Amino acid sequence: MTRKKGQYFIIGGGGRVGYFLARALLEADADYEVVLLERDEGRAKMLKRELGDVVVRGDACEVATLEHVGCERADFLLAVTGEDEDNLVMCQVAKQGFRGNRRTIARVNNSANIKLFYDLGIDIVVSPTNDILKTVGEELPLWRVIDITPPSNGGLRLVEVRVPENAPILGKTISAMGLPPDNTITLLVRDKHNSVPTPQTTLQAADKLFALVSDEGKLRLERAILGEHTAARLIGVIEED
Predict the structure, then answer these.
(1) Which segments of the chain does DSSP mark as H helices, in order?
(2) Per DSSP, what are the bridge partners of residue 202?
(3) N or C end of the chain, less CB within 10 A?
(4) Which residues contact 203 (CB under 8 A, 6 or more apart)?
(5) Are 138 and 112 in contact (CB under 8 A)?
(6) Does residue 113 share a domain with residue 36?
(7) What is the mean pLDDT of each run of 10 residues along the chain (241 residues)?
(8) Are residues 184 and 228 in the same domain?
C-alpha cells in the first residue's frame, strides 16, 4: 500500500485500533494520505510488512516525531493508543505545537476522562466504554440513566432514561422527582409521540425521558426512576470500574 494525496491523517498508536483505522482509510474510495506512528520497533516492523511505508516508527507524543511526518499540513490527528495520558498529550502537541487548523480525535479508555479531554480542547472524544453502555442502554433501556453528552461548562449533561413498570415515580408528577432548580426534563416520548412536559405531567410506564441534569440532578433522577437500592448499586459499580 502506498500513500495517497488528499486529506492527510496522522494516526498515533499502532495497536489494533490504529491498524484497522489505517487500513480502512487506505482502502477507502477516497484520496487520503495516511501515516501510522508506532513507537515500538518490533510492532512497527510488523505493521510495515502489512501496510507498507505509511508506517513510521516514532513517538507521536514528541514534537520532533510529528514534525518529521509533517503535522503542520495534517488535516486530522487521531490518537488511539491504549493510554489516555498519551492520547491527550498527542492531541495537545498537535494543536499547540504546529500552525494550521487540524482536527484532533482522541480515544478515551476511562470514560471519567471525557470531560477533561473536551475541557483541554480536544475536538472529538471517542469512548468505547460509553458507546457500549449506550448500546446496552438501548437494548435494555431500564438498566440505568444513559449520558448522551458530557457535562457542559455549566455542569449540565443531557441524559436519557425509560420509566420501568415498577418505578417509584410511576403515577406521580415530574415535580415529585425533586430535581434541582436549573435541571429540567426537556422531552417526553410516549407511544412514539414527542411532547415537552411540564412539572405537573404524570409519568407512565415505558415513558422515555430526556433531561438536562447536574450530577446531583442525575442522582435524584436515578432514585426516582430506578429506586434507591438500584441507583446506589449502579453508582457503586461505576465507581469500582
Answers:
(1) 16-27, 41-51, 63-68, 84-96, 114-119, 128-139, 215-226, 228-240
(2) 173
(3) C
(4) 163, 167, 169, 170, 171, 172, 173, 174, 209
(5) no
(6) yes
(7) 68 94 87 94 94 95 95 94 94 90 90 88 85 59 71 86 86 93 93 92 92 92 72 39 39
(8) yes
